[in-house]
Design goal:
10 helices, about 15% strand, Rossmann fold, about 220 residues, alpha/beta, 6-stranded parallel β-sheet
């Protein structure tokens, strides 16, 4: 059965492969995930905080050490990203910590970046910004159509990077896939808490979300 699971996973990965290298604007979330994977140090701790962004990044980003992947867990407890990053950096100050947020999730505890900055904890944060609670939005659009479906789940395309800059951290704003890796490199070189605001496609959903029975 293990070999069968591997075969199925490989088939699914092949379907997604073109998106890993997509230059589309807005940016495809899988392209963002690949850029992060290739940038990460081998022993880095990776934190994923969000809905669909967690689902999609989980199929691409594979930390090499046990316990080096942290996420909201089976109950989807969003908002854990910044607190997990604080704890991880406090426990292992010499280990690179990278946190990937959905914009909705970042809005819950993003102001805790103040703690990272006050204690000089150089975490690299990335917001996959689609200006929506997109996992919720998908289900509503499927059930009620776009006009009624886009109710109470649309967010503003905020410049979260500027919020972190205002606190004293390093910020980057990315609108094209080719800008992702240079922004990550600058964030690492900054030597202080950083946040990269990446504008991703709001009309891309994970296969898991699209197959969820509660949305049918």
């Amino acid at each position: 059965w293990f070999e069968e699971l591997c075969r199925i996973e490989n088939e699914l990965s092949e379907k997604d492969r073109p998106f890993l290298y997509s230059d589309a604007v807005p940016i495809h979330p899988l392209r963002l995930a690949r850029e992060i994977k290739e940038f990460m140090q081998k022993d880095a701790i990776f934190i994923a905080d969000g809905g669909d962004v967690v689902t999609m990044s989980a199929g691409v980003i594979t930390p090499c050490e046990p316990g080096h992947w942290l996420d909201p867990g089976p109950l989807g407890t969003l908002g854990v990203g910044t607190p997990f990053a604080i704890a991880a950096k406090a426990a292992l100050p010499d280990t690179e910590v990278i946190a990937l947020f959905g914009d909705g999730a970042f809005g819950l505890t993003g102001f805790d970046y103040d703690t990272l900055i006050r204690f000089n904890m150089p975490v690299i944060g990335v917001v996959a910004n689609n200006a929506a609670w997109n996992q919720v939005r998908y289900g509503q659009v499927v059930r009620y159509g776009k006009v009624r479906g886009d109710v109470a789940n649309i967010l503003s395309p905020l410049r979260y990077d500027r919020i972190v800059e205002a606190m004293g951290g390093h910020g980057e704003h990315v609108t094209e896939a080719s800008q992702i890796r240079p922004a990550l490199e600058r964030a690492r070189s900054a030597g202080k808490p950083s946040l990269i605001n990446v504008m991703v496609d709001p009309n891309v959903f994970s296969s898991g979300t699209m197959k969820a029975s509660m949305f049918q």
